[in-house]
Amino acid sequence: MRPSIRWPSRTIAVLLIVAAGLFVIGVTVERDSDNHSDEPAAETGEHNEANESAESIEAENAERASGEAEEAEGDDERVLGADVESPHLVVAAVVASLVLAGLVWRRPNRRLLIVIAVVAAAFAVLDVAEVAHQLDEDNAGLALLAGIVAALHAGAAVLAIQQATRRTTAKEPVTT
Question: What is the mean pLDDT of residues 88-99?
């Protein structure tokens, strides 16, 4: 049985689809963890004036720290002036990945493969930056997930370049 000639393009499509799915999972988990860390902890114990003054001082310090953290975080999440974690850009990235996957599955051609290589490589670079960001935040689970997504994007880029630069060799008739 002869292997299909289309397996590289279908592999690229699968890599893009799996990467998009894991990317959505990572964004969702990160947003959930951000929302849970913002919620105040439930109060336990006795409530007296000493506790109230300590709590108010802690609250003021937390507000100052969160304001400073938001300022610093806002700088980290921007690439070329765009918030890379905005819902619109996340949806656009996922839609772009799925459209490219569908196109390469149906009709792979050299130009499309080059576009996929460039887009997947750009996504891989952003994913590696996300790995660094998650490691800075001491979030090993999301760093691992971002690393897997980066590897999938890099694999799709390499395979697309390989297929785009592959020379088609026609079988020459054997003469004896």
Answer: 94
E runs forming strands in the chain:
78-79, 82-83
19 in Cβ contact with 111 (< 8 Å):
no
- Residue 36: DSSP 8-state: H
Mean of the per-residue pLDDT values of the chain: 78
The token pair that represents 169 in the structure block = 């060799």
User: Which are the contacts of 11, defined by CB distance < 8 A and separation ≥ 6?
Assistant: 159
pTM for the model: 0.70
Rounded CA gap, 108 and 6, in Å?
Answer: 9
Q: What angle do CA 37, 43, 45 make, to 5 degrees?
A: 145
Kindly give the pairing relationship between strand 78-79 and strand 82-83.
antiparallel
- Taking the CA of residue 21 as centre, how many other CA atoms within 13 Å lie in the half-sphere pointing to its CB? 7
Alpha carbon 19 to its chain's center: 8
Alpha-carbon distance of 85 to 77, in angstroms, equals 7
Tokens of 122: 């750009």
Q: Residue for token digits 């990572």?
A: 26
Q: Is the pLDDT of residue 162 over 90?
A: yes
